[in-house]
Amino acid sequence: MFDWLLKDEWFPKFDWRWDYAWEILPRLLEATLNTLIAAAAGYLIALVLGLVFALAQRSDSRILTFVVREFVEFVRSTPLLLQIFFIFYVGPQFGITLSPWISGMIAIGLHYSCYLSEVYRGGLDSVPKGQWEAATALNMTTMQTYKRLIIPQAIPSAIPGMGNYLVGIFKDTPMLSVIGVAELIHTANSIGSETWRYLEAYTLVGVIFLALSLPAAGLIRAFENLVRRKLGM
Amino acid sequence: MEDFSGFPLEIADENKPMVSFKKVRKAYGSLVVLDDLDLDVAAGEMVSIIGPSGSGKTTVLRMLMTLEQINGGVIYVDGKPLTHMGKDGKLIQANERHLRERRTDIGMCFQHFNLFPHMTAIQNCMEGPVQVLGMSKAEARDRGEELLELVGMADKKDQHPSRLSGGQQQRVAIARALAMRPKVMLFDEVTSALDPEVIGEVTNVIRKLVSEHNLTMLMVTHQMGFARDISDRVCFFYGGKIEEQGKPADLFGNPQRERTQQFLSAVKEAV
Questions:
Q1: Could you tell me if A133 lies within 8 Å of chain B, comparing CB atoms?
Q2: pLDDT exceeds 90 at position A3
């Protein structure tokens, strides 16, 4: 009775070719590795720099706090894509010429460090004031207090936020394709332009992203529990 | 610029007090918490501080631990200025380095214990000696175990604070403070957050410290019976001043000031 709905011309021809999909899979998997490397390197930069930004915003120096605060706001309020272009294309005008890979990872790392600094800040603020007072009573320095007491206690509550941005950074790596980093989207584009077949390449890219992102949430939760247990909290 | 010319650079007297507050003033904005406080505590003396809330009694300990800055006067510990330091023969505000040097004489226990939750009992006791005093881990562990033994917590040394009761946590906190070998120990309402049935285990530890160790102690407490038992002297604080002080038998048995009488009878009624 719904025959009238199933007119052939209403459906685009769904022309999926398995043999072709198998053929391009190795190239895409190689690109997956590049994507993971870019994401991991960017994340590592963000983890370290984010902590530096978070600590700087808590320092006694008003100037430092102000400068870092404004910088973080600035980066968070402008698109990542613009930052990638800026570092790659405008950098050379200031005598800083970087390869696509390096510029990409710096851009992503810097961008996410600003988000992560907020996550850290929340974690650091959540440590009770009494811990600082106990540290003073034991005559510990500010550095020792952060390193031995405050940061270890701030980490567990920061892990969910840190995990979200790990997935976020992974899903943002395609932006690096605009400056020619051979990550997944870039590779899928090249495959498509070589053969004029886009369906298989883009579908596989989607499946790969999904397969890697989906388990992340569970793994992050398991990691958080592990850390909490290790710290006896 | 405040004038410190009336304050000595050092108290060199043979019978110098271990702790000396000289005209110490503390205010939050226009609210004066402590008003020209003068208080000397002799070496080895146990002084209890009692009084209604808001009378400034906890502030006395917090200033001595340098958790709060003072707004006037000078605090001396063991004859040397704590809150200030000498420069060109004059006293100036202490810098962080001076505070770190002078704080080694003082240890403190808090109402809410403030143990490090990510460390076991013994690790809590080792943290200060290893990180601050530069002691070897083996030596710090020995000392920590000795002190946990003293407070009756040796069997729980590998437990995290979350596994311990309030009384047990407070005993670990006392061991942690003692591990730094302070000359002066401060107890800030250490039994106030405890369930009634475990208060005794903490007060017993403090009793033991008083009878067996030659520590100078200042204790803020609401346990009048305990203060009366173990103190050499009791100070009743009211409105940022010492309203009355004396031997426990005199102050509790025969208070002279009206406010002291009112406070003590109010406390008695509450029990």
A1: yes
A2: no
Token digits of residue A189: 């584009």
Q: Which amino acid is at A160?
A: P
Q: Please check whether residue A95 touches B, CB under 8 A.
A: no
Query: Which residue would you say has higher pLDDT here, B8 or B157?
Result: B157
Which residue in this structure is represented by tokens 């992203």?
Answer: A209
Query: Which residues, listed in sequence order, are joined to residue B236 by a DSSP beta bridge?
Result: B50, B244
Give the orientation angle of helix B166-178 with respect to helix B137-150, to 10 degrees.
Answer: 130
Q: Is residue A162 a contact partner of residue A221, using CB atoms and an 8 Å limit?
A: no
User: Are the beta carbons of B131 and A149 separated by less than 8 Å?
Assistant: no
Give CA–CA dist B37/B73, Å, rounded. Answer: 8
Q: Identify the burial level of B254 via C-beta atoms within 10 angstroms of its C-beta, where 0-12 means exposed, 13-18 middle and 19 or more buried.
A: exposed
CA B159 to chain centre: 26
Q: Cβ(B33)–Cβ(B59) under 8 Å?
A: yes
Exposed, middle or buried by CB within 10 Å (0-12, 13-18, 19+), for A7?
exposed
**CA pair distance B247, A13, nearest whole angstrom:** 100
Pairing of strands B216-220, B46-50: parallel
Nearest Cα residue in chain B from A227 = B118
Which distant-in-sequence residues (6+ apart) come within 8 Å of B260 by Cβ?
Answer: B236, B238, B243, B244, B251
Residues 6 or more apart in contact with residue B122 via CB below 8 angstroms: B141, B144, B145, B148, B157, B158
Stated pTM of the model: 0.87
Determine the Cα–Cα distance for residues A38 and A181; give it in Å rounded to an integer: 9
Binary contact (B132, A140; C-beta < 8 A): yes
- Tokens 């890979």, residue located: A101
User: Average pLDDT, stretch B251-256?
Assistant: 93
